[in-house]
Design goal:
With 356 residues, this protein is of the alpha/beta class. 20% of the residues lie in helices and 28% in strands. A 9-stranded mixed β-sheet has the order 2-1-17-16-14-3-12-13-15. The protein has a 6-stranded antiparallel barrel with strand order 5-6-7-10-9-8. The chain has 2 domains: 241 residues, QueA-like (3-Layer(aba) Sandwich), CATH 3.40.1780; 92 residues, QueA-like (Thrombin, subunit H), CATH 2.40.10.
Length: 356
């Protein structure tokens, strides 16, 4: 039987969408879902340590979110245009894939002017639209004659933290720190790997002291992860490719834990996509670097992780579909109903789920 998009819908009262993060990272709520028995427990996130022992492994995505949302003005009309940076295509010619809003006003050949947010009279960058890619997608070229360091400093000055639109507020100072994991290292994501937002430095240190290994992978989260699925038959959905990397030490620690039948936990769906994109013929994890467009949906045989930490996701999203493939659709749909009844907080700044 084919897995259909319409099977992954649920009604969520808007009041359960988290607009802000928990006051303390590791004091968000944690739902523990037992795959085999169907048992559900309600904990605080820092209790996650109780489910892991010496030589277990947690795999973290160390991507770092860059301030990807810019606001420019269109030449002649002065209309404000939102430009969401997706991916730098060519560093030398400063070409980017972007989304623009409102898209109907932006055509090939248009120029966009970006001024200093603190001094609107100071023009910092000019860009030209060179191609249409999708209905909202464009390729733009920035004109700047200074050094690469100066150019990227200006992009950081112009950019805003790209919190998801469903949060329905403007970015605030808190987002600069909290829409980023404490271990974020490699710049390149336009969205945070949100399961990792719950980990404090203290909790990571406590896990380390307990003997849990905490290796890193990198997957630069793009909008492909969050793009709306428009086909009912999931086998026809195509994911946009995202860059990933798995260091040799991560592969070694994971394979050692698998061999010793220890717990291997993927922290987030992005870590899961990464490790499932580099599986050897003997179902071990390989050192790897490249691009993945892997879309995981039922039925799918997971090769590496036997547990995962994740947030509560949007209906009909690729994230919810992957989690359902991992734990079983019926169990996840039941767990979501329990979460609504128990007033859990949903989506990027919401509470977490541990599936074991």
């Amino acid at each position: 039987m084919k897995t259909k998009l319409s099977q992954f819908t649920y009604d969520l009262p808007e009041k359960f969408i988290a607009k802000y993060p928990a006051d303390v990272r590791d004091e968000s709520r944690l739902m523990v879902v037992h795959k085999d028995s169907g048992k559900i427990e309600h904990k605080v996130f820092k209790d996650v340590i109780d489910y892991f022992d010496d030589d277990d492994v947690m795999i973290f995505n160390d991507t770092k979110v860059f301030p990807a949302r810019l606001f420019g003005k269109k030449e002649k009309t002065g209309a404000q245009i939102e430009v969401f940076l997706l991916r730098e295509l060519n560093k030398e010619s400063r070409l980017w894939d972007v989304l623009v809003d409102p898209a109907r006003k932006i055509r090939v050949g248009n120029k966009l002017f970006f001024t200093n947010p603190k001094d609107p009279e100071q023009e910092l960058l000019v860009a030209e639209v060179v191609d249409n890619t999708t209905s909202r997608g464009r390729t733009i070229r920035f004109f700047f004659e200074g050094t690469d360091e100066e150019y990227h400093a200006i992009l950081r000055t112009l950019g805003n933290t790209p919190i998801p639109k469903y949060i329905d507020r403007e970015p605030e100072a808190i987002d600069t720190e909290r829409y980023q994991t404490v271990y974020a290292d490699k710049v390149g994501a336009v969205a945070a790997p949100t399961a990792g937002l719950h980990f404090s430095r203290t909790l990571l240190k406590r896990l380390e002291i307990k003997g849990v290994h905490l290796p890193k992978v990198t997957l630069h989260v793009g909008l492909g992860t969050f793009r709306e699925i428009e086909v009912e038959d999931l086998s026809k959905h195509k994911m946009e490719a995202e860059y990933f990397a798995i260091p040799p030490e991560t592969a070694r620690l994971v394979n050692q834990a698998k061999k010793n039948k220890k717990r291997v936990c993927s922290v987030g769906t992005t870590s899961m996509r990464t490790i499932e994109s580099a599986v050897s013929a003997t179902s071990t994890l390989k050192e790897a670097e490249g691009w993945t467009n892997l879309f995981v949906y039922h039925p799918y045989e997971f090769n590496i992780a036997n547990s995962m930490i994740t947030n509560f996701h949007l209906p009909k999203s690729s994230l919810m579909i992957m989690v359902s493939a991992f734990a079983g659709m019926e169990l996840i749909m039941d767990a979501y109903q329990v979460a609504i009844k128990e007033k859990y907080r949903f989506f990027s700044y919401g509470d977490a789920m541990l599936i074991i």
